[in-house]
Amino acid sequence: MNNCINYSLFYFEIKAKREGDNPAYNWITIGLENINKAVINLLPVYGIIENERCEVFKLEDFCWNDEDIFGCGLVYPPTDKSPKKLPYIFFTQNGNQIGKAVLLKDNYDTYEQVIWIRCCSVEANFGNDLETKPFCYDITKHFVIKEFYEDSDVD
Fold first, then answer.
1. How high does pLDDT run on average in the chain?
2. How far apart are alpha carbons 67 and 146 in whole angstroms?
């Protein structure tokens, strides 16, 4: 992460392949779930990002194509930053950030990856071996995001 010396980035990607003859049944979601079971996720079939309060943010000009690669990143700021900065979650598609980031205001100490699928298969990359299987999104060029969803963005 450029200009982010003490920030921590956790990131994973999935390659989503549609299965079956009826595309109306294809459905995936990728995101993170906290200890209270609140989820922040991307729902490509609807072209939306949903926060932990079930508020929906519509992605402009979004299209889900077969075998797209979706990513989810969690960024924690340095603990000694003044004024205090909050962690955030962002999403990618085929190596590019999509939408704005979602600020985490509560219960952000523990998150787990979540992937739900229907009539799809996924190939996950959790970054275990980036030399032979690099991420589509170049995490080395990630800058701290300064644009976040706000209440006025709720669809």
1. 88
2. 29
